[in-house]
Amino acid sequence: MTSPVLAEPDGRSARPVYELANVCKYYGERGVVALEGVDLTLREGEFHSVIGSSGCGKSTLLKIMAGLTPPSKGRVMLAGKPVLGARPDIGMMFQQATLFPWRTTVQNILLPVEVREGRAAAEAARARAYGLLELVGLKGFENTYPSQLSGGMAQRAAICRMLIAEPNVLLLDEPFSALDEITRDFMNMELQRVCLERNASAFLVTHSISEAVILSDVVHVMSARPGRVVRSIRIDLPRPRTLDMVVLPTFGAHVSEIRHLLDTGALP
Amino acid sequence: MSQPVQTRAPEATEPALPDTVWAEKVSWVSLVPRWVSMAGLLVVFLALWQIVTSAGIVSQLILPSPLDTIVDLGFVGRNLFSGDYMLAAFWVTAREVFWGFMLALAIGVTLGVLVGETSFGERAVMPYIVAVDTMPKLAFAPLFVAWLGFGIMSKVALAAFISVFPIIVGTAAGLHATDENARMLFRSIGASRLQTLVKLKIPSGLPHFFTGLKIAAISVVSGAIAGEFLGGGQGFGELIRVAASQLDTPRVFSLIIYLSVLGLVMFGTVSWLQYKLVFWQRTPVTGTRKASQ
């Protein structure tokens, strides 16, 4: 069996990026419990996934982490500071590319810079945007409109937009689930490369077990109603991961463990 | 012909199976140019109209024949282009339509942004707008005459009053039409309310806004004419009223046809603006069908 190349499993050496303690979210008058007692620590350079059936509160968790919605209880710390609203040091991606059809591809990518620092800064970052586009294989599409891009190309452009402000943490809400499987595998490897290159930390919401296992250092399995993390599983596959690792016995063992947890209603 | 992969040698005399090529059913209408089918329909319509009137099925006093109407169209056209009293009347109505539309635009966009962007507008103002919108607006015409007199202002006010609601609704609906993910994205990059409005909500709301604007561009002409019917004046509405009272139905028809030019110009201008501004979502001018991707 191959030993993990990354830091030791408990990861004590790496600095914590996200620290969540007892995060709860209740909705409505009757206090429907969307999330209950979520504790997790995401360390620098780590890739975590959260997996669960729909309605288990995983997207709510991501929104709380991004500072888009407040928790009802508990505390969220990002880089040692409490999260009390949207933070400039994170990059987000959603299932839809959400490119704006009235902006060219490069203008879409420069949007975060334009919003935070103004047009002049966006103009100055143009060269960097071109570089990112080249990195994801979209060279030559800089000045086309998103309607000219296929689904996979649009998501690659969305990756560039997420990376333009050089965030330390990536929050990914099923970013490739609308793509076909072949494209998705390719994009996942691209995502890994991007994270390894920048030593960025990532938190991925997904409902694909194999995607979670192949990408992650830690997979958090969530149960629904109330949404809580049932088990956090450390994936001891070496980095960089490759697509043919799916045939390794370790991979299969992790997949069946997670599947079993999900099948049994993710009850502890 | 490419050879299929076969495990046994083909018999030299084996008869080839026929291709299964078959014709898709296509309506013959879609095979001729569009203008041909349009012109054909017009000819059939005019012919039927002529038959109905010249056979005496309907009295000429009630329905003039198309030929009479065309003759009168020529008369009204000559009057208009020689700058006679009809041109003066046309300009009166054109001014009412233009200023009515501008007033509706200013008020409609202001109220639409208030309703679409602020919680106060949505929660407190919108119910009143809906309440007024459900009232029969033409019934307000005598009030406008009482307040603003028999001049052009009362017609401008009625035209604006009738066409302002589609603009309010279109603007507000447009500002609400923003995709949930797009709003989250803007929040996650720390966009201010003004930035979100200018860079996200307004551009993504433009198609809805223009839908409202097109409805307004057409109803504003009706508003001006109704104002003239109910409040007098010197516009085309007055000419129509007088012609109708004299049972001069060919004149009524030709006045309406020239009047439709006003509506066409309004609608065409708005459509052209939409085509230029909403370049990422171009639909045919009629706006009844989404552009095929």
Give structural notes.
The complex is a heterodimer of chains A (268) and B (293). Chain A is an alpha/beta fold. Helices cover 34% and strands 24% of the residues of chain A. A six-stranded mixed sheet of chain A has the order 6-7-8-3-9-10, sandwiched between helices. In chain A, strands 2-1-4-5 form a four-stranded antiparallel sheet, with helices on one face. In chain A, strand 7 (169-173), helix 7 (181-198) and strand 8 (201-206) form a beta-alpha-beta unit. In chain A, helix 8 packs across helix 9. Chain B has 293 residues and is mainly α. Chain B has ten helices and no strands. In chain B, helix 6 packs antiparallel against helix 8 and helix 8 (193-231) packs antiparallel against helix 10. The relative contact order of chain B is 0.11. Residues 286-293 of chain B have low confidence and may be disordered. Classes of the chains: A alpha/beta (268), B mainly alpha (293).
The average pLDDT value of chain B, as a whole number, equals: 89
| Major beta sheet summary of chain A | 6 strands, mixed
Q: Please indicate the percent range of residues of chain B in DSSP E strands (runs of 2 or more).
A: under 5%
Unreliable residue runs of chain B: 286-293
CA-based shape of chain B = flat
Largest interface: A-B, 24 and 20 residues
Structural class of chain B: mainly alpha
Q: What's the total count of β strands of chain B?
A: 0
The residue fraction in helices of chain B comes out at 55-70%
Q: What's the short story on this structure?
A:
The complex is a heterodimer of chains A (268) and B (293). Chain A is 34% helix and 24% strand.
